[in-house]
Amino acid sequence: MIIGFQTANYFARATNYQTSMDLWGEAERKVIETFSLAEFDRICGDIQGAGFQDIELWMGHSFPKFMTPFFAEELQKIWKSHGLSVYSYSCSLGDPVRYPRWTRLCFETAKMLGIELITSGITKESAPVIYSLCNSNAFIGDCVKSSLGHACNTAFSISLKGIDFSDPQQNEEPKI
Questions:
Q1: For strand 153-159 and strand 85-90, is the pairing parallel, antiparallel, or unpaired?
Q2: How many other β-carbons are positioned within 10 Å of the β-carbon of residue 82?
Q3: SS3 at position 119
Q4: Burial grade of 71 (CB within 10 A; 0-12, 13-18, 19 or more)
Q5: pTM for the model
Q6: Cα separation of the two ends of the chain
Q7: Cα dihedral 28/120/111/176 (nearest 10)
Q8: What's the confidence (pLDDT) of residue 139?
Q9: pLDDT category, 136, cuts 50, 70, 90?
Q10: Distance CA 97, CA 150 (A)
Q11: What is the dihedral of CA 59, 161, 52, 3, to 10 degrees?
Q12: DSSP codes joined into one string, 78-105
């Protein structure tokens, strides 16, 4: 069993804790706009200081649109320097039906970070597209779906082990 700490718990830090869950989107935007490697180092230090060894990395601290191999490597160095291990990448896969590029970018970000598990919430309408993406990319492991108790959402995890995003056959957009 893994007992981990979600870096999303620090969503309010960028607003000096002057926000609420009702204003999640605004706080998330502030985190993304002001994020730095120094801030990530502080977060990892806090998590280590609280006694955790495993973390779920939130996309606000590793935003797909800005991810580069260099930035991914720097984030890895930081969490490893604090003795932390990342067991999943928590992100919003968005709407893969209308915006498949964003969804693929999330997959690529997790891969760049060396994280083999994505955790996200999706709509029931998106589930077949995500499932197709998993299958079309020869994912090792399962797309595990479980009810969140809400009629229109599904939580799932995806294993990214063995994916080569440089392979053109694995990098095609899913057919909708």
A1: unpaired
A2: 18
A3: strand
A4: middle
A5: 0.76
A6: 37
A7: -110
A8: 40
A9: low
A10: 20
A11: 100
A12: HHHHTT-EEEEEE-----TTT-HHHHHH
